[in-house]
Design a protein that fits this description.
The complex is a heterotrimer of chains A (330), B (281) and C (316). Chain A has helices at residues 46-54, 79-85, 107-118, 123-136, 142-145, 155-167, 185-202, 213-219, 237-242, 247-254, 320-329; strands at 2-15, 18-31, 35-39, 61-69, 72-73, 90-93, 173-177, 205-210, 222-227, 230-236, 307-310, 313-315. Chain A is α/β, with parallel strands linked by helices and 330 residues long. In chain A, the strands form 2 sheets. Chain A has an 8-stranded mixed β-sheet with strand order 6-7-8-3-9-10-12-11, sandwiched between helices. Chain A has a 4-stranded antiparallel β-sheet with strand order 2-1-4-5, covered by helices on one side. In chain A, helix 3 (107-118) runs parallel beside helix 6, helix 4 packs across helix 6 and helix 6 packs parallel to helix 7 (185-202). In chain B, 75% of the residues lie in helices and 0% in strands. Chain B is built from 11 helices and no strands. Chain B has helices spanning 3-13, 15-36, 69-105, 107-120, 125-136, 140-167, 170-177, 182-218, 230-236, 246-273, 275-280. Classes of the chains: A alpha/beta (330), B mainly alpha (281), C mainly alpha (316). The interface between B and C is large, with 44 and 52 residues. The structure holds adenosine-5'-diphosphate and magnesium ion (MG).
Chain lengths: 330, 281, 316
């Protein structure tokens, strides 16, 4: 059964240089219990996609299209209705555990807050639940930690607290926006394993956002590669990684150093030339045109059509055949 | 200088800047004009024309000594501007020097200077002026000096903060690597880079100086007769407010407009000079 | 006690001592010794010498400083030359006017400023915000003593709701005394409140951009609940700092405003002392006022520790 159906989602931001589209005609579906990764360089619109689903876009932005949760379009919801959804049916974990917790409240109070709001539990019940959640996310000595303030916890522990908070009301969907980007490499893996295991145990769906291909590869069933606010490639994770087909996805992969890559010694680490253009400078047509090796005049006037190259594996590129051939011959 | 015209255009597009700039312009112009011309002699008393109502002859009427109020107000602008210029110069000269010194030296010099300026915050201008006046006697000079001293710690803190940020930048490192001394780096690199911050603070301190001087003159601790001064005008008309309330209104409006103009100008300058700050606010 | 508070307490004491040194030196360094200042330039040398003797000015400077310090610690303070009474006697009744006035003005300005600042921030860039900011811009520009005059004109002369000045004393009941403090407090609180309101607004706006505020919204808290539970307390931390720093100006303002309302407070005492050239009284009262400012700033530091768990004892 479809849990989340995003159709033609476009996020527009009012910037000093006029309105700019930060997310363009994005569509995807998420089944109950399914996990989806969104990957792309920073600034490509991943966070804004997540915030659009949560109804928490910045003041200067708005969303068009539809975001259907269990068949109901969230974009038509009133602010009050959205408050019923946030933290209750959709939980969210943010990137910065250091700043995402209120420094003046105990972690216990912050975890209990959503339950007190949505479940109407009393203080004692909330406390029991918080202790259970702290234990569940692997924080030692929950009875002690429940009274701690954020500054008394390490970065990893704070992110565990964030996860406990997001899961406290048993949401159907978890959105994790770069949950490990700000953490040490060793802790990153622990946190990702924790999230993956909890999702599986609780049967929740998840959208995992990352700029790191490795993180996506190891943790989700399906993947969307985004560039300049648009989806450039998507499909089942294994298929996509086995057959990277969009020039941008390929470039992204080449830019990652890989220890277990047998060709590593021979492979030159490449970076994608140029940088992500500013929002207002994004061209009409394919957003990647200015950095792409395969670009032709045909890429410029309109967004390229989506081509299905295998079951569920879609690529938005006019020159997908050339790109695939080159990639295979590499 | 490609940035120059755009800065001007941004200034002219900024409402606070234009409003504040115009009001301040009026203040300065009034003071300048009053140097050579006022409708009547602001000092000369004319006891036959006391408390005359506003008319074409006396735009704002006359006070209890028969002096033309409009003329006194005009001449009072001189006093306010003098106080502002002198006291801000005192505060800025010493404050900026101390701040730059603290920032260049760091260590306990910085600590000492900053603690001392924290400490000075406990003594607002009026208390200092009272101490000075109590020992040196009443007078405009003492009031101005006291107000100037009061703004030293303000400039010192601001300068030190801004200068520390500059010292941390790469081009300073380059200059040090080139073997330039601290004094030279301070003069050549640090000072030019904090001027914009200082300009904003100057307008604010100017406004505060006008307010403080008015208060001191009102208490009889500032400008002495017959120097025309808005603060003293308010003091002199105090006994008249039951008979002619308007006498108490004009000088206050003059002070408020001057201060408002300078504050708006400061706000505008801050936004125009540093758009980053503007967005943060 | 936490290390933070202990440090702050040491600073508090050190600042107080610094204030005594400064006020003491001000009299010493400035030209003319106290005796000749008190008696004026024209006084015969014999009279000056006699007064020098009486004030003990021939003793070494350190000895006199420590004597004075002892007088302060025992709360006796110096002896007024004009009144020949200990300064403590002189200030006792006057403190009962100036301190309540200052505190009342501070509370008033804080309440109004928090209300307006938060209101403006929650309506960022909308008409309500623009209006509040415009009014506060005016409030900052108005001299408090002029506002005091206008208040007298309106409420005492025109409407006759309040008397135009004076102070009935606390012994005649709390209400009349309180009533006499209202107009002066409003005059003082307006400027302070205007500054504080602007500051509160920007502190709240700044805090609303914090990541933890987004977290709170992601939990399903409404804008209003987020503002109350997560924004306000965090925004208060910078706001009370400014309140402490502003207190010095507020207290200086009481001197002027007391003069306008003809209230026999410390301000009046100090102004009289100046015209009497009674430098001893000036010195001691200035010190008292400075000490009050320093004390309020210490209270602000304690408030920090109450608000912010990062400064609490278990942290050290
Ligand atoms: N409030 C905002 N105002 C203007 N531009 C914004 C705002 N928030 C994000 N952007 C821009 O939108 C683009 C996408 O941002 P985001 O979704 O945060 O990217 P990411 O993929 O790194 O999460 C970026 O270019 C960013 O600069
Ligand atoms: Mg992001």
């Amino acid at each position: 059964m479809t849990l989340l159906a995003v159709d033609n989602l476009t996020v527009t931001l009012n910037t000093v240089r006029g309105p700019a589209r930060a997310v363009r005609n994005l569509s995807f579906e998420l089944e109950k219990g399914q996990t989806l990764g969104i990957v792309g360089e920073s600034g490509c619109g991943k966070s804004l996609t997540a915030l659009a689903i949560m109804g928490l876009l910045p003041e200067n932005g708005w969303a068009d299209g539809t975001v259907k949760l269990a068949g109901e379009n969230l974009l038509t919801y009133s602010e009050d209705q959205m408050c019923q959804v946030r933290g209750n049916r959709i939980g969210m974990v943010f990137q910065e555990p250091m700043t995402s917790l209120n420094p003046l409240h105990t972690v216990g109070r912050q975890i209990a807050e959503a339950m007190r709001l949505h479940r109407g539990v009393n203080k004692a019940e909330a406390r029991t639940e918080v202790l259970r959640l702290l234990d569940m996310v692997g924080i030692p000595e929950p009875t002690k930690r429940i009274n701690s303030y954020p500054h008394q916890l390490s970065g990893g522990q704070r992110q565990r607290v964030m996860i406990a908070m997001a899961l406290s009301c048993g949401p159907e969907l978890l959105i994790a926006d770069e949950p490990t980007t700000a953490l040490d490499v060793t802790i990153q893996k622990q946190i990702l394993d924790l999230i993956r295991n909890l999702i599986e145990d609780l049967g929740m769906a998840m959208i995992l956002i990352s700029h790191n291909l490795g993180v996506i590869y190891q943790n989700v069933q399906d993947v969307i590669v985004m560039y300049g606010g648009a989806r450039v490639e998507s499909g089942p994770t294994h298929d996509v990684f086995a057959n990277l087909s969009h020039p941008y996805s390929q470039g992204l992969f080449e830019a990652v150093p890989q220890i277990d890559d047998t060709k590593a010694s021979r492979r030159r680490l490449r970076t994608i030339p140029g940088t992500v253009p500013e929002l207002a400078d994004l061209p009409a047509g394919c957003t990647f045109q200015d950095r792409c090796d395969y670009v032709t005049d045909a890429c410029r006037p309109t967004q390229p059509p989506v081509v299905q190259i295998a079951a569920g594996h879609n690529v938005a590129c006019l020159h997908v055949d050339a790109a695939r051939k080159q990639w295979a011959a590499r | 200088m490609e940035g120059q015209p755009s800065i001007w255009r941004r200034c002219l597009a900024h409402r606070s800047f234009v409003a504040g700039g115009s009001l301040t312009g009026v203040l300065v112009l009034t003071a300048l004009v009053s140097l050579v011309w006022t409708p009547w002699n602001p000092i000369k008393q004319n006891l036959r024309e006391r408390l005359v109502a506003p008319s074409w002859e006396h735009l704002l009427g006359t006070d209890q000594f028969g002096r033309d109020i409009f003329s006194i107000i005009m001449a009072g602008a001189q006093n306010s501007i003098t106080v502002g210029v002198v006291s801000v110069s005192i505060g800025m000269t010493f404050g900026v020097a101390l701040g730059l010194w603290a920032s260049a030296k760091r260590g306990w010099t910085e600590e000492l200077i900053m603690r001392a300026s924290d400490f000075m915050y406990a003594f607002p201008a009026i208390l200092l002026a009272i101490m000075l006046v109590a020992t040196l006697g009443q007078g405009a000079i003492n009031a101005i000096v006291a107000i100037g001293i009061f703004s030293i710690p303000v400039f010192a803190r601001l300068t030190r903060g801004a200068a520390n940020a500059i010292w941390a930048r790469e081009f300073i490192l380059a200059a040090r690597a080139a073997g330039k001394g601290k004094l030279r780096i301070t003069v050549e690199h640090v000072l030019p880079n904090i001027v914009s911050v200082l300009v904003v603070q100057i307008t604010i301190q100017f406004a505060l100086a006008i307010l403080a001087e008015a208060a001191l003159s009102f208490l009889g601790l500032g400008a002495q007769p017959p120097t025309p001064s808005w603060g003293r005008m308010l003091d002199e008309t105090r006994s008249m407010i039951f008979i002619n309330p308007w006498l108490a209104v004009y000088p206050g409006v003059a002070i408020a407009i001057s201060v408002l103009g300078l504050n708006l100008l400061g706000d505008g300058l801050r936004d125009v000079i540093d758009p980053r700050l503007a967005r943060k606010r | 006690m936490s290390v933070f508070l202990a440090k702050r307490f040491v600073t508090f004491i050190a600042t107080l001592l610094g204030a005594t040194v400064l006020t003491f030196l001000a009299l010493e360094i400035l030209p003319g010794d106290p005796a000749s200042v008190i008696l004026g330039i024209d006084a015969p040398q014999s009279a000056v010498d006699a007064l020098r003797d009486r004030l003990g000015l021939d003793r070494p400077i350190l000895e006199r400083y420590f004597d004075w310090l002892e007088d302060i610690v025992t709360l006796r303070f110096g002896v007024s030359y004009t009144y020949s009474t200990p300064v403590l006697e002189l200030v006792r009744a006057r403190l009962a006017i100036t301190f309540p006035l200052a505190i009342l003005a501070m509370l008033l300005s804080a309440f109004v400023a928090f209300g307006l600042g938060v209101f403006a921030a929650s309506r960022h860039n909308r008409p309500g915000d623009v209006t509040v900011m415009g009014i506060s811009q005016l409030g900052i520009s108005v001299p408090n003593f002029w506002l005091a005059l206008l208040l007298i004109l309106l409420f005492a002369v025109q409407l006759r709701w309040f008397s135009s000045g004076g102070f009935p004393g606390w012994h005649n009941g709390v209400w009349p005394a309180f009533k006499a403090l209202i107009l002066p407090a409003i005059a003082l609180a307006t400027v302070q409140g205007a500054i504080l309101a602007r500051f509160t607004r920007s502190a709240v706006l700044e805090t609303m951009r914090e990541d933890y505020v987004r977290t709170a919204r992601a939990k399903g808290l409404s804008r209003r609940a987020t503002l109350w539970r997560h924004v306000l307390r965090n925004a208060m931390i910078p706001v009370i700092t400014i309140m402490g720093l502003q207190f010095a100006n507020l207290l200086a303002g009481t001197i002027v405003v007391e003069e306008v309302f003809a209230m026999p407070g410390l301000g009046r005492l100090i102004l009289q002392a100046i015209s009497n050239r009674d430098v001893i009284v000036v010195r001691d009262v200035v010190l008292m006022l400075a000490a009050f400012v320093v004390f309020i700033n210490f209270v602000v530091d304690v408030l920090y520790a109450v608000i912010d768990p990062r400064l609490k004892p278990h942290d050290v």
